[in-house]
Specification:
Layout: E1 3-6, E2 29-32, E3 56-61, E4 64-70, H1 80-93, E5 98-102, H2 106-118, E6 121-127, H3 132-140, E7 144-148, H4 152-164, H5 179-193, E8 199-203, H6 208-222, E9 231-237, H7 242-249, H8 275-284, E10 288-292, H9 297-305, H10 313-325, E11 333-337
Parallel strand pairs: 4-11, 5-6, 6-7, 8-9, 8-11, 9-10
Antiparallel strand pairs: 1-2, 3-4
Helix pairs in contact: 1-2, 1-5, 2-3, 5-6, 6-8, 7-8, 9-10
């Protein structure tokens, strides 16, 4: 049985309402332990658009066989759909009819789609610089888009002010209900490979996908369904790499982190809320974080496209990361391609 409790004071999540923080102490809620059942249907979802069951395709990369988990094949074009299905199902179970969210694009598009499916009126705060196709996608689902000038953090601040005024904040960062959905990606990989991967390489911004997948692998290990956790390699953009800094230098490393502009807008998160848990579980796996300079992002996107994988720049971070780290990663290696190239205005170097 999964328990949802405040990480600060230990109080359980209220039986009514949808607070995004603990009403008593302002702490962050978390959910543990995750189920080790391999059937995503056990999550009792009320809202679905057919997310999950994405392809796992092998291809040669840097003279190694790598398995690419094509999360861009989800209904709205990104991995976010796994978590939004479980989050929106929870909202519906609590009788929510209107909610707000903030996003650089993918989470907002996913939330808008699943809100439409659930009959929930959605408003999404986005950075003014968010990719045009993503903003258009959000609007097409019927959600109201609120562009916010400045960096990604400004959109987060704007949505919190709206939440303080009484709106339901369906945050993919604060609320933990997306994590069981992300765990299904780990379960699928084990089913598709016929066993555990040796390593998983994936982009990390807020790090929810990394945390949910790692906990999924850990649940499978504890249930005796796999022998050990895969090595987790989280990839960030050098322009904004707080998890890499925290992992390598500890808390003082955060003093040197910037929220610089990057084509990998999906990982432009200056202060990941679950950073401590993400770093701990990555270390537990024997993995680490790495960062990719801006000059390598589009070339990575183009290299993946030449293998048949059309992804957005955030997903392309895994290509350069593999170029630098594949010799040290145990087989089989799985690289998670998180978002579709159709979400980004096409560019050439």
């Amino acid at each position: 049985m999964m328990k949802i409790v405040c990480l600060n004071c230990g109080r359980p999540y209220p039986e009514t309402g949808v607070p995004y923080q603990c009403p008593t102490c302002g702490g962050l809620y978390d959910v543990e332990p995750l189920t080790s059942d391999l059937q995503p249907s056990t999550l009792n979802q009320l809202v679905s658009l057919g997310e999950g069951n994405t392809p796992l395709i092998s291809a040669k990369a840097f003279r190694r066989e790598v398995y690419f988990k094509c999360e861009y094949a989800n209904p709205t074009g990104s991995f976010k759909d796994r978590g939004t299905a479980t989050l929106s199902s929870f909202l519906l179970s609590r009788g929510v009819t209107e909610a707000i969210e903030d996003s650089s694009g993918n989470a907002g598009a996913s939330f808008a789609a699943y809100a439409a499916r659930a009959g929930i009126k959605a408003r999404v705060y986005v950075p003014e610089s968010a990719s045009g196709p993503k903003r258009q996608q959000i609007e097409m689902y019927g959600a109201e888009v609120i562009p916010v000038p400045g960096p990604r953090s400004n959109a987060a601040e704007a949505v919190r002010k709206a939440a303080q005024a009484g709106m339901v904040y369906a945050s993919h960062a604060y609320l933990p209900f997306n994590l069981p959905g992300y765990a299904t990606c780990a379960y699928e990989i084990v089913e598709q490979l016929g066993g555990a991967p040796g390593a998983v390489v994936l982009p990390a911004g807020q790090g929810g996908l990394l945390l949910g997948m790692a906990r999924g692998f850990r649940a499978l290990m504890r249930a005796g369904k796999i022998d050990k956790m895969p090595v987790i390699l989280g990839v960030q953009a050098s322009a904004c790499a707080p998890l890499a800094a925290l992992f390598s230098m500890g808390i003082t490393g955060l003093n040197f982190v910037t929220e610089g502009a990057t084509l990998a807008e999906g990982v432009r998160v200056r202060t990941p809320l679950r950073a401590k848990a993400i770093v701990e579980i990555t270390r537990e796996s024997g993995g680490r974080f790495t960062s990719v300079d801006e000059a390598f992002i589009l070339s990575g996107r183009d290299a993946l496209a030449r293998l048949g994988f059309y992804v957005e720049p955030t997903s392309a971070l895994v290509w350069r990361a593999m170029e630098e780290t594949l010799p040290e990663l145990p087989n089989p290696v799985v690289a998670v391609l998180t978002g579709s190239g159709y979400k980004f205005a096409a560019k050439k170097d």
